[in-house]
Specification:
The protein has 5 helices and 15 strands. It is an alpha+beta fold. It folds into 3 domains: about 50 residues, Structural Genomics Hypothetical 15.5 Kd Protein In mrcA-pckA Intergenic Region, Chain A (Roll), CATH 3.10.290; about 90 residues, Alpha-Beta Plaits (2-Layer Sandwich); about 80 residues, Alpha-L RNA-binding motif (Alpha-Beta Plaits). The structure holds uracil (URA). Uracil binds next to helix 5.
């Protein structure tokens, strides 16, 4: 990769400012200072130091994030904090796609990835990647059979859709639900369809990937193999 592309991609400076950046900052590769903007190197195999700091680089990067309640599954918003703001050094320099959003009042596992194709693959309706949710209802839940059989809900385009639970476990008003679809507000709408209101919603698993010991606001890097069976 050319060094000007690398420096601008990792947001050290704009592509136009690379010449100045290389003059005013000590960019070292294999022990030698780099001054040419067209210099080529392999960021996956060669370590770069800028002003005595080793620069982290990986491609792709997949992050499992514990989205806290109150955060938007988005990059930027004027009103609300966004999940991207949770990502700190050294991961903050990369551009992420959000694979499968959670509502602002929901919490739990959210995937950020620099691999656009993987994000597409995870969210594509045909992928049927199972997701598990822990849900607290406004009353003891007694309609497992209905959700396992399938209920009609409206999707994001207000079209009717038959949504089905793959698996369920119920303890009073606490329900663990597995689905392999991802329609707009799907879990809330499935419970609404049988007369309940979701009070709390937490996603614990996507495919094989789980929250494990992540705490709200925390994140960890994972490999694509951690997601699929
Ligand atoms: N279903 C919902 O209703 N909300 C979410 O955030 C995720 C799934």
């Amino acid at each position: 990769m050319r060094i000007d592309k690398f420096l601008s991609q990792l947001k050290f400076c704009s592509r136009n400012d690379v010449k100045d950046f290389l003059k005013t900052h000590e960019v070292i590769l294999d022990g030698k200072r780099v001054v040419e903007r067209s210099f080529e190197f392999n960021p996956e195999h060669q370590n770069m130091m800028i002003d005595h700091e080793v620069i982290f680089y990986a491609n792709p990067i997949h992050l499992a994030v514990f989205k806290p309640k109150g955060y938007l599954s988005a990059n930027k918003d004027k009103l609300h904090p966004c999940v991207i703001e949770l990502i700190k050094s050294p991961y903050h320099r990369f551009d992420y796609a959000i694979a499968g959003r959670l509502d602002i009042d929901a919490e739990g596992l959210l995937i950020l990835t620099t691999d656009g194709a993987l994000a597409h693959q995870i969210t594509h309706p045909k992928s049927h990647l199972p997701k598990t949710y822990e849900v607290i209802q406004d009353a003891d839940f007694k309609h497992e059979k209905d959700l396992l059989k399938g209920v009609i809900i409206k999707d994001g385009k207000n079209e009717l859709y038959q949504a089905k639970a793959l698996d369920m476990m119920t303890n009073k008003n606490h329900v663990i639900l597995k689905i392999d679809e991802g329609k707009f507000h799907q879990v809330k709408r499935m419970f609404q369809a049988v007369g309940y209101e979701v009070l709390e919603l937490k996603r614990t698993h996507i495919g094989k990937l789980s929250l494990d010991d992540l705490k709200p606001g925390g994140y960890r890097q994972f490999r694509k193999e951690d997601l699929y069976d």
